Amino acid sequence: MPAEIPVYQDVVKAHDRIRGYVHRTPVLTSISLNEMFDASFFFKCENLQKVGAFKFRGASNAILSLSDEEKSRGVGTHSSGNHAAALCLAAKMQGIKSYIVMPRNAPEIKKIAVESYGGIISFCEPTLEAREKGMDEVVARTGCTFVPSYDHPHIVCGQGTAAKELIEDVGELDIVIGPVGGGGLISGTSISTKGMLPGARVIAVEPAGADDAYRSFKSGKIVPSVNPNTIADGLLTSLGELNFRVIMKHVDEIVTVSEESIIEAMRLLWERMKIVVEPSGAVPLAGILEKKIETGGKRIGLILSGGNVDLARLPF
Amino acid sequence: MPAEIPVYQDVVKAHDRIRGYVHRTPVLTSISLNEMFDASFFFKCENLQKVGAFKFRGASNAILSLSDEEKSRGVGTHSSGNHAAALCLAAKMQGIKSYIVMPRNAPEIKKIAVESYGGIISFCEPTLEAREKGMDEVVARTGCTFVPSYDHPHIVCGQGTAAKELIEDVGELDIVIGPVGGGGLISGTSISTKGMLPGARVIAVEPAGADDAYRSFKSGKIVPSVNPNTIADGLLTSLGELNFRVIMKHVDEIVTVSEESIIEAMRLLWERMKIVVEPSGAVPLAGILEKKIETGGKRIGLILSGGNVDLARLPF
Fold first, then answer.
1. Residues B65, B225, B261, B305: which is the catalytic one?
2. Domain boundaries in chain B?
């Protein structure tokens, strides 16, 4: 029997656990974007979170939920993205070890990021199977606790603290929008939103080139992500099992957007808001640009999930 | 006899006047930058201010200090930069007219910005003389009030509200650093800092390619800016008379930085802080990079003055 899905009170507990360690990120507004779409937008800037992404919330909550004995053996994950960097920094801040299994062909910049946060890297072949096998070996050798990147209640509740802060700061909202990849952020966002503002709609936005969550939502069962193709490299993965169940319960709608809209949204955020947002983080605004989300007179919260981009390889 | 220089209480009054109209911009921190320089940095993000620059503070204070009769005739300035955009938006928010005299060869993007905020543009030849003459004509024709971009107590006190908010938010600081061009921002910053934290040092940073403030400070009289050459296009102007007197009274030191350091600082801010900062706004951090400002164990506030850059023409 599957575990029960977390409730808003679990997000409250997660927030109490992590608030001394995470940034309470600012909520920014833009007159020009509001005028452009006849709406009041509130951008929750998780690009300004530690390690440049909301992932630091879930990783911190997972680590702070461990027993002292578990902490003494460290934590690990197989990831080459924001979750790995987040886990390493959260571990370093608690004075514990972190082990990262990473494909040999991961970009140099990701290796450097993990090492700069004190992560101990094991390289593997670039397949999911090799990553999981490598992780099993590290767990067997070190006794560390494997911390998944989205499919776990601690991760979901940690990520949900971003929407909780957003709503605490701005009050009533008609719609809350987030991107969806594995589903960690949007599932946590939906629990917080429905817990605090039962009348608000929660909308997930996904690149059309990686629309497994959209298809899962429509069909009522998890459709794996096969050969996803999008610039939004944080949204390539399949939905987690727990995340899917939360989404089916709390998310009102999933819409998909084109690559062109993602790049246009990213550029608008940089130009108008003066913030660096990665493609995945621009996906919610892309849903607005494509007019797939009603804006007229509405108060709309958007979670800007991250800001980790290679400045030498901008799409504009 | 020259007017008395403004005191901290004047900044307090300015803040009361404008606080309902300006963003209280966030103060951001970065673990990685702190570790890099063994300091605690507090970045006051005026790049996230309305119109993307601190200039909105001074312009708002100037307009809100007008009588109703003056307001009815509007405001004007000759500028093609952030001050013009700031004045237009501040005027628009009060429902009054704004007149901008702008050189014919001003970049298209600046014209569009001014027009989007409702500014009424008159074009002139690209000389200071033609700009001043054009402004005189507009004032004679419309009866509008000329609002200078830095050499005025209302402007100085408005700009000083950024440092006031910074110090209110973070408390004790050892050093407060800002860029210096015409001197509006640094003079206001120094009044607030010395008023709130008498023991803190105020350091101005200036591009070596536009070092008139540095030379003025050393020689004790205003040295005009002649053929300045720097990517920091907000810092090309000569010091204002009032600004110079405030600087001589309250600023402890002026240091100069190279173009390479400005670009490196700008890139660091984008990469580590995930914010878009224009070259002028990166100048204070460039002073840190060049080790011209002592950092060891210090609490240091930096004013990031603006974020208006052309994304199609980045220097990195």
1. B305
2. 8-53+152-313, 56-146
The whole-angstrom distance between A281's CA and the closest CA on chain B is: 12
Token pair, residue A28, equals 């920014």
B251–chain A nearest CA distance, Å: 29
Residue A8: how many CB atoms within 10 A of its CB? 16
Contact: A48, B316; criterion CB under 8 Å: no
Q: Beta-carbon neighbour count of residue B94 at 10 Å?
A: 15
d(CA B231, CA B8): 32
Torsions phi, psi for A118 (to 5 deg): 85, 10
Residues of chain A neighbouring B277 (CB-CB closer than 8 A): 274
Could you tell me which chain A residue has the CA closest to the CA of B36? A116
Provide the CATH topology of domain A8-53+152-313: Rossmann fold (3.40.50)
Model confidence at B1, pLDDT cuts 50, 70, 90, reads low
Residue B50 pLDDT > 90 = yes
The pLDDT tens digits for A99-119 are: 999 999 888 878 888 998 999
The pTM score is: 0.94
Residue of A nearest to B272 (CA): A52
pLDDT tens digits for B78-127?
987 899 999 999 999 999 999 999 999 888 878 888 998 999 999 999 88
Judge whether B100 and B76 are in contact, CB under 8 Å: yes
ipTM: 0.93
Arithmetic mean of pLDDT, B12-35: 97
Q: CB B31 to CB A52 under 8 A?
A: no
Q: With a cut of 70, say whether residue B132 has pLDDT above it.
A: yes
Shortest CB distance from A274 goes to which of B28, B31, B52?
Answer: B52
Of the residues A44, A50, A55, A111, which is catalytic?
A: A55
Instruction: Specify the pLDDT at position A1.
Output: 56
Specify the CATH number of the domain B56-146: 3.40.50.1100
Nearest Cα to B42, choosing from B139, B178, B135, B155? B178
Kindly report, residue by residue over B29-44, the tens digit of the pLDDT: 999 999 999 999 999 9
pLDDT score of A86: 97
- Are the Cβ atoms of A275 and B312 closer than 8 angstroms? no
3-state secondary structure of B102: strand
Q: Do B48 and A271 touch (CB under 8 A)?
A: no
A146 contacts A61 by C-beta, under 8 angstroms: no
Sequence-ordered alpha helix ranges (H) in chain A: 8-18, 31-37, 55-64, 68-73, 82-93, 108-116, 128-142, 153-170, 184-196, 212-219, 241-250, 259-268, 279-289
Q: What pLDDT band is residue B4 in, cutting at 50, 70 and 90?
A: confident
DSSP string for residues in A8-27: HHHHHHHHHHHTTTS----E
Q: Which of B158, B309, B185 is nearest to B250 (CA)?
A: B185
The tokens of B290 are what? 């060049």
- Judged against a pLDDT cut of 90, whether residue A260 lies above it is answered with yes
Nearest to A275 among B50, B275, B316 (CB): B275
Q: Which residue of A has its CA nearest to B312?
A: A316
